[in-house]
Amino acid sequence: MLMNGIINLHKPSGPTSFSVVSRVRKMLGVKKVGHGGTLDPLASGVLPIFLGQATRLAEYLLDYPKTYFASVILGVSTDSYDSDGQVVLRSDASLITPEMIEKALRKFHGEIMQQPPAYSAIKCDGKPLYELSRKGCAVNVKSRQVTIFRLEIHRIDLPLVEFEVECSKGTYIRSIAHDLGLILGCGAHLSGLVRSSYGPFCVKTSITPEDLEGMVARGDRSSFLQSPDSVLTLWMPVILTGEQARIIYHGGSLLLPNFHNDVRLRAYNEQKRLVALLECIAGSNLWHPSKVFVEQ
Q: 3-state secondary structure string, 196-249?
């Protein structure tokens, strides 16, 4: 049975994102399986799983913001910036006040420059930084710009600080925890992390691997699937005629003067099935397919 769609999976804390994908692949017997947005082993929450042709749309999930609920421990720093790493510093955080924490966290608003952890999946010379760091190699991690749309403190019970953050792609919550410790002068690390939403996917409507296993055992192999175009809500929809769809299927371009050339289009046939993603050819009203989806 061909399966094309997205599973809003709730990754548990412990396994890697890769191992969760492997488990789903074996469970469903589907070859083409991928995921959107890697979660560290420590983290739990929303991990969208893409099946079949939907894997070609995973990259567009990056256009959406993510929301996390983070738990941070003050007074202890680790090399990985989270509780999975080795402790590199212990200090007294008893003099830190809620006012000091609130003032420090106000620095993490809007566009900021952030240095990713040395223990991360970012690649240097083709190798993940965490591999180089584990071998004792010195790594030079360049800072990069990320956007914090919202950061709200939920609880301060020293040494514990809990907050919710909505951020752009490429943001490391571990780095926010580490940098908070630097600003306060006492060190800090991330002790818990839940991704509560990622674009159109929310933790409240997610299913666990055990939920999925139960559905498959009952022969329910479709209700857990969301439409592949769930990640295309930022693209403008257009319905093609039969002739227009034929042209697109053959790699041709369409004249669509009713659309501004700075938008992106998701094109459907008359049966409301996704046909292609269309982008405007510069300096014209011609729209050319960037991806075509063969009807199955």
A: EEECCEEHHHCECHHHHHHHHHCCCCCCCCECHHHHHCCCEEEECCHHHHHHHH
In whole angstroms, give the CA distance from residue 16 to residue 201: 20
Alpha-carbon span 129 to 100, nearest angstrom:
33
Q: What is the residue-wise DSSP string for 15-35? A: S-HHHHHHHHHHHHT-S-EEE
- Distance from C-alpha of 132 to C-alpha of 136, rounded to nearest angstrom: 7
The whole-number pLDDT of residue 226 equals 93
Residue with tokens 């960037």: 290
Q: Catalytic residue among 40, 82, 179, 229, which?
A: 40
Q: Which DSSP state fits 184? A: H
Active site residue 40: yes
Residue 123 has pLDDT above 60, yes or no: no
Rounded-to-integer distance, Cα 45 and Cα 53, Å: 24
pTM, two decimals, is 0.89
